[in-house]
Amino acid sequence: MLTPAATTRLRRQLGELPEILAHAYLALLPSGAARSGHVSGATRTPPLPCNLTTLDALTDRDEPSIDILESWACTVLDDRARANDWTAWVQLPAIRGEMAASTSIKVLSFHLPFAARRTYATDLATEIAALHHHLNAVARYPIRSARPVRTACPACHLRALCERTDGWRECLNCRTEYDPATYTDHVRQALAELRPAA
Ligand SMILES: [Zn+2]
User: Fold this and answer.
1) What is the distance in A from the centroid of ligand 1 to the CA of 158?
2) Domain ranges of the chain
3) What is the DSSP string of 7-64?
């Protein structure tokens, strides 16, 4: 079970992974810069003109591997089918073992509200965070996460209100949800109270 803040973080990391993956693969190209490490020559067959430091980082078995994306996507899909939760059920991908990283990321993002409530949610979040961090370190142009803007919550008065992708606002503290119209009403009311009395 993930907290709303941890779920939001995981959703952001999943959303950033396709771009990070692209940057990481682009970093395989030898740059010619001294800091880019060795470039393969006759030592590997066939010789690949690529940055070996980056290649090792992308394929090292000890590091968080890109393969975890598909294994987690399959775990969540199997769990969802077993849980017989038909409300958001989608047809399972026919080909297992050959799911593209982008497909796995889409599956994980789509089923995140379900997966965040399961017992393995913490492990999922930890491994995705490690992969996100690792690939971002490998990429020559690491991306910086935009910090979500948080506003004051009308219910608990803490600055913990975040805008969701569906336009609603959700408090990370008291978990109150506001649809766009209700939130606008609250803002108007707060502004009216701030206005000096005539
Ligand atoms: Zn609140």
Assistant:
1) 6
2) 4-138, 148-198
3) HHHHHHHHHHHHHHHHHHHHTTS----GGG--B--SSSSS---SBHHHHHHHH-TTSP
